Amino acid sequence: MEFNFLYKLYEWYISRNLSQENMPKHIAIIMDGNRRFSKIQGNMNVIRGHEIGVDTLEKVLDWSIDLGIEIVTAYAFSTENFNRPEKEVEGLMDLFVKNFKRIVSHEKIHKNEVKVKVVGKLELLPEKVRIAIKDAEKSTEHYTKRLFNLAIGYDGRVEIVDAIKKIAEKIKTDEIDVKHINEELVSSNLYTEGLDDPNLIIRTSGEERLSGFLLWQSSYSELYFCDTLWPELRYVDFLRAIRSYQERDRRFGN
Fold it and tell me: Is the pTM of this model over 0.70?
């Protein structure tokens, strides 16, 4: 009881000192640690660890809404993750289907007007997952207040290569000239077309690398690495990341 009180007090202390004017507009998250969490529990099925990770993601969305953060982008499944054991990949695909179906009638998503979008090589996903994604996106496509992006079948290098291919095709068909190629053109041909770059990227589990996440978009993002495994992420951990962001002097090369 005493520990819970002290935790809530610390949580309140951090949150009261955050500046609403300096709140990041776009937070991106590398949700790392689901498998390690499952292993630590002893006999927990790895998919159960991922399910708990989904619960954590819902909490993060709630926290972001409460703090006024407009855009959240979460790294859910990379192209390399297809190399994991077949049973785990199948379980993850079923988990995607289940949760995208939930979005269609998810009370909080619609109450808070959250637009849901999936980015990545969606053609690599099973048809049942693509259908569930399409239904979820369609059910929220008219919202403009908040945006939740989920990166599935994603790899930052592949994204850049695909952007180059799209630009090359436009040059080939005389839609644009080589002299028109600039940063803005590249950005407009990425999976995240039209989206503000993330102000802050958070990675859990103690690993300190981007693992191919938003390589182009992260040029000026602040990075925050947290030792907590993703399923165990607490509100206070999230607040610490925001506090760290607000304490930094963002000079953008100046």
Answer: yes
